[in-house]
Protein: Ribosome biogenesis protein BMS1/TSR1 C-terminal domain-containing protein
Organism: Gossypium lobatum
Amino acid sequence: MLISEFPDEVDTPLDVPARKRFAKYRGLKSFRTSLWDPKESLPPEYARIFAFDSFARTQKHVVAKALKVEQEGRDDCAPVGSFARFYIKEVPFHAASNLCAASRTAAIVLCGLLQHESKMSVLHFSIKKHDSYDAPIKSKEELIFHVGFRQFVARPIFSTDNINSDKHKMERFLHAGRFSIASIYAPISFPPLPLIALKNAAGAGTPAVAAVGSLRSIDPDRIILKKIILTGYPQRVSKLKATVRYMFHNPEDVRWFKPVEVWTKCGRRGRVKEPIGTHGGMKCIFNGGLQQHDTVCMSLYKRAYPKWPEHRFPANV
């Protein structure tokens, strides 16, 4: 109940200084208008992915090139309705064995790839939880993405689709009844492309349909921010000033986070003036009178990225 009502609130640890525990977080004056460099402090996985200067222009060029090759009727292409023999090299033994076993009971579908579709990037899907699936779906959980003719394992993070800003708030779970954006590391594909997300249930052999959607865009520079809220409580209130405790536990942390704006659940905004004592108390100044039962909050953000999957394909492939 508390997690659903206050999903972003976290407790400051007693044994670790807040300036170290939340070293990757920063404050924002405005979530909508404050600047955030999309190239700053990128994870090692970004060295393994491909980025487009203009995805829309590249897609138009790739599709036009594929149509031209199809209409030319070249000698190195197999005509429609003909038989062809394929030789597949450098395939792991277990994958080849599974493929041969599957070919005895069902047809094997071979699909060609367009230019760039063998490369990895950050794909963003518009996704909605399926009505028949009741279990929670947490960010970074392993899902099986069935995208077009491809099927692979991914660990997505979910976020809102903020049309008024270049920053988007991360969601800890995929909520039912509305669309969210799922971001994953995956092979490049070109929209429009449908999506079916499957999830392996504990003890069940067949994965269940967990969510459906479609490919929205390919953009490694899309900024997804994880938000946390530190809370404290006013101990003494005098007009516009208040002594706040329990947000931090030592004066060094108060000085470290002093530039970040504070706000209250009753709508007041203010700033940290100075630390008080040796146990993390601080003096704050607000834009209006503070009530004794109010809660003082500080919002911090860090950029979130999808998890690189431990294996590319489902275990039964």
Summary: The chain has a mean pLDDT of 89. The longest helix spans residues 55-72.
